[in-house]
Design a protein that fits this description.
It is a single chain. The protein has 711 residues and is an alpha+beta fold. It has three domains: 125 residues, Penicillin-binding protein 2a (Domain 2); 100 residues, Arc Repressor Mutant, subunit A (Orthogonal Bundle), CATH 1.10.10; 393 residues, Beta-lactamase (3-Layer(aba) Sandwich), CATH 3.40.710.10. The chain is built from 27 helices and 20 strands. The strands form five sheets. Strands 2, 3, 4, 5, 8, 15 and 16 form a seven-stranded mixed beta sheet that branches. β2 and β3 form a beta hairpin. This is serine-type D-Ala-D-Ala carboxypeptidase. It holds the Pfam family Transpeptidase. It catalyses: Preferential cleavage: (Ac)2-L-Lys-D-Ala-|-D-Ala. Also transpeptidation of peptidyl-alanyl moieties that are N-acyl substituents of D-alanine. One of its GO terms (molecular function) is peptidoglycan L,D-transpeptidase activity. Its main location: membrane.
Length: 711
């Protein structure tokens, strides 16, 4: 029988081939893993362990403001605060923490907006929110928009379709969570954001501190709030600071961000707080957060603990400032009892060291009607000393006499005959009485208008002929104004405060108005300009730059003053170009005004023991105040400038009482305020020299000067 040939199978071969291929692949994989681990292992390890350094700046308290005698004027009051730092978590995690925190603290929802509610409703009701936009609408939007733009369009449709009924689903508890969640999301990543710093109770602070482990990102700390020791005293000039809620002002946010500020930083918004922002803001604490690739904080390192802002030592004496404000208030209320004072509502005083430019008091008060109660009340208006200007009258005549000397219009001792000037086409221009022949010094003493008129005519290149016309060169206006500017009249004084007004210059060049300019009844000036002007005369011809800050000092933890960083040195803006004896003539005239019988201020200052000198002013003006129905009504402005002691001036003063009366009896409030202010200055000085503390008594009670006069 024939054997059948056995058929050879190919299965073992194929199986072996498969094993071989698997072996090769496995060998390649092992080789590849070896290369990765041995050759590139360190590189991949570093990539996995790669971290990022994120530096965060934490705000510090602002610097203090301290008056010239060492009293704290502006300080920081510590207050408990609860903060949240977003360490890179998502919305759901933040919402969970907000819900937990809402059960531990009370948080009002006053700042929650309509948009906040809608966003929160969407977060809480995602499925219902999605149904607000149909599939058909989504497809149509997808055809027009891509990616993020598409998402924005859908979200906008959802927002627009959320109804009041939908929002009513948010409970009171939801609103509290929303208020907290809103604070969580308003800050930067890794930057602490204040959740609550007002009225945090000890119980809230304690219970949150105890549960921090359940509240990732939440912390308890100490925040600060600006505190003004003297309440409304000088408050407007000290300025304001933004709240932690507001942060950087929107209109200046780019400027501040470029300087390293955070959006929720508190900054000065006005006057001294803003003017010295760079000094007061301080050096922020710097913390370096080390994060892994996923954004989780791995470690935290303190780079710099930061430093509270530097302190400002002010030139102002707050005892004197308060006393002056009280005097203004009392005299304003008293003056309002006189006939014809219905438009009188304000008064201003500036006290300045004529040798250094240091402002010792910057006081203004205004009577306003409370819109809620309908009653009149007194408000601080210290800003009005340099932001409002008025016709001041004869107080500028010292500048007119010196302008006459400098231009050659008159010489020391030049006489003029004081009688009404009769100029064609105008009313007679005259002094308050006819003085006959009078020289420069006595013209100041009795406040002769006619003497100043003749001086202005000479400056303008004219010649007075009774009954004739009075052709004057228009350049005369510029000449007078340029010389007045040497004293600070009609120009910026240079004070270290913003928004200073220089005053209004009349544009009509009718010749008669040049005469009015010479007696202070054409252009307008501020109280601060008047103080700089009289200081220039007091010190012998140097126009000093006024300033509110005396020193900048390093902050100290205790109540001691820190080392001086910068001392503001007296700055001479310009010196009058005068010949020997010229300014002494004006000083003599000013001394006669207050110290010699017949002087316009002698009745008030004749017995003053500190030997004052000065000049009074009464200007015929027009009302331009808040009562629109009385705009352009004729009024009388009262002013006074002075300094003391005559031979060695240490204090210069300017007083302006606008719209003091309309007809009726002159209430002389400028002189009453001026005498009491000068008395108070010297009484406070004497009390301190004697080791007493009678600054308040000097304002409230009878002054030492008055007692001496009675004796």
């Amino acid at each position: 029988m024939k054997k059948r040939k056995k058929k050879k199978t190919h299965v073992p071969f194929r199986l072996n081939m498969l094993f071989f291929i698997v072996f090769v692949l496995f060998s390649v994989l092992v080789l590849r893993l070896g290369v990765v681990q041995i050759v590139y292992g360190d590189d991949y390890k570093r990539e996995i362990e790669r971290t990022e350094d994120v530096t965060v700046n934490n705000p510090v308290p602002r610097g203090k403001m301290i008056d010239s005698t060492g009293k704290i004027v502006v300080d920081n009051v510590p207050q408990n605060a609860i903060t949240y730092t977003n360490n890179g978590v998502d919305q759901e995690e933040m919402l969970l923490v907000a819900e937990r925190l809402s059960k531990l603290i009370e948080k009002d929802d006053k700042k929650v907006t309509e948009r906040d509610k809608k966003d929160f409703w969407i977060l809480k009701h995602q499925k219902k929110a999605e149904k607000k936009v149909s599939e058909k609408e989504r497809k149509q939007l997808q055809e027009k928009y891509k990616d993020e733009e598409y998402d924005k369009k859908v979200y906008r449709l959802i927002l627009d379709r959320i109804t009041e009924k939908d929002l009513s689903e948010l409970s009171k508890a939801d609103m509290e969570v929303l208020a907290i969640y809103r604070e969580f999301t308003s800050g930067y990543k890794f930057t602490p954001q204040i959740v609550k710093n007002k009225d945090v109770t000890p119980e809230e602070f304690a219970v949150v501190s105890e549960n921090l482990s359940l509240l990732p990102g939440v912390d308890t700390t100490t925040d600060w709030e600006r505190f003004y020791t003297y309440e409304d005293t000088l408050r407007s000039v000290l300025g304001g600071v933004t709240t932690s809620d507001k942060g950087l002002p929107a209109e200046e946010i780019d400027n501040y961000l470029s300087k390293g500020y955070s959006r929720n930083d508190r900054v000065g918004t006005s006057y001294l707080e803003k003017q010295y922002e760079d000094v007061l803001h301080g050096q922020k604490a710097k913390v370096k957060n080390v994060t892994d690739k996923a954004g989780n904080i791995v470690s935290t390192e303190m780079i710099s603990e930061g430093q509270r802002g530097k302190d400002l030592i002010l030139t102002v004496d707050m005892d004197l400032q308060r006393a002056v404000e009280q005097i203004i208030e009392e005299e304003l209320w008293t003056a309002r009892k006189y006939p014809g004072t219905g438009l009188l509502d304000r008064a201003y005083v500036v006290l300045m060291d004529p040798n250094t430019g240091e402002i010792k008091a910057l006081a203004g008060k205004r009577i306003v009607r409370n819109q809620e109660t309908g009653k009149t009340e007194m408000q601080d208006d210290a800003l009005g000393t340099f932001t409002t200007t008025y016709n001041v009258g004869s107080a500028v005549k010292g500048a007119t006499i010196l302008t006459g000397y400098q231009t050659g219009a008159i010489s020391p001792g030049t006489p003029f005959y004081d009688a009404p000037l009769i100029i064609a086409g105008t009313k007679p221009k005259k002094s308050w009485k006819n003085f006959g022949s009078i020289n420069d010094v006595n013209a100041l003493k009795v406040s002769s208008n006619v003497y100043m008129f003749h001086t202005a005519i000479k400056i303008g290149g004219g010649r007075y002929i009774p009954g004739g016309s009075l052709p004057l060169k228009k350049e005369g206006f510029d000449i007078i104004r340029q010389h007045f500017a040497q004293f600070g009249l009609g120009v910026r004084t240079g004070i270290d405060l913003p928004n200073e007004q220089i005053g209004a210059k009349g544009t009509d060049t009718t010749p008669g108005l040049m005469l009015d300019l010479a007696i202070g009844q054409y252009d307008t000036y501020s109280t601060l300009q008047m103080a700089q002007y009289v200081s220039t005369i007091a010190n012998g011809g140097s126009r000093m730059e006024p300033h509110m800050v005396k020193e900048i000092r390093e902050p100290q933890m205790d109540n001691e003053l820190g080392p001086i960083v910068q001392e503001i040195q007296p700055k001479v803006l310009n010196r009058l170009d005068l010949e020997s004896g010229w300014i002494e003539r004006v000083q003599l005239g000013f001394r006669k005004v207050m110290g010699e019988s017949g002087g316009t201020a002698y009745g008030f200052f004749g017995n003053a023991p500190y030997y004052p000198a000065g000049k009074t002013g009464t200007a015929q003006a027009f009302y331009d105040g808040p009562l629109t129905n009385y705009r352009m009504s004729p009024v009388m402005n009262l002013s006074l400038v002075g300094y003391a002691p005559t031979n060695n001036p240490e204090i210069a003063m300017a007083v302006i009482v606008p719209w003091a009366y309309t007809g009726g009896t002159d209430n002389r409030s400028n002189l009453k305020i001026g005498r009491r202010v000068m008395d108070t200055y010297f009484d406070i000085k004497a009390a301190r020299a004697a080791g007493g503390t009678t600054a308040d008594e000097a304002a409230n009670g009878e002054s030492e000067t008055e007692k001496k006069n009675e004796e």
